[in-house]
Amino acid sequence: MPNQVSSAQLRPANNQVVVWSLNPHGLTAHFPTPALAPTRTPTFPRGRTVAGLAEWQKNKIMRYIDDNVESCIRVQELGAQVRLSASRFSKGFKVSFGKSPYDYVLARRIEAAKYLITSTDEPLSQIAQACGLSDQAHLSKVFKRLVGVTPLNWRRRHASGSAVPVASQPWSRLAQSSERVMAM
What SMART domains does the database record attribute to this sequence (predicted)? Predict the structure, then answer.
């Protein structure tokens, strides 16, 4: 641990024990198990604390992102949904989710793409657009980086179909609207 001036044990919303220490650079979180730590440990300037989002704000944002995964989603829009400035929202989001709003939205787009790839026979270019990605190349690049395989290989591996009922997925409407576009 860095030069520890003082420390306090706090329990965040997920009941995970975190040790906070004050050091010359500010307040730093130390996680007892590295696997439980967010992708990047938040460090705040001395004298300032950044709280995460309230539970209602997290729920509203997750729902908004899933409902608008095919659209361009800006940080200003997300902040406005929960009555926060873009800057305050970004900081609170990072504390609550352990990643930036951009990274979270991108991950949700890929989850939607995984669902559509396994539950429809739509071309990957249509799926990319239905998930808010610019084109098939963008989908392939991001998909491979986050999932580890290309979308086509994912489709081949999961060709048996989805065991999850269509209506239970937040983006099942994308599959239905994508089928209507292809029928025209």
Answer: HTH_ARAC
The string of DSSP letters for 90-149 reads HHHHHHHHSS-HHHHHHHHHHHHHHHHHHH----HHHHHHHTT-SSHHHHHHHHHHHHSS
What percentage of residues in the chain have a pLDDT greater than 70? 59
Q: Which two tokens stand for residue 152?
A: 């086509």
Identify the CATH class of 55-102.
mainly alpha
pLDDT confidence of residue 27:
55
3-state SS, residue 36: helix
Whole-prediction pTM value? 0.65
d(CA 148, CA 140): 10
- How big is the CA angle at 134 (ends 133 and 135), to the nearest 5 degrees? 100
Q: CA-CA distance, 14 to 76, in Å (whole number)?
A: 26
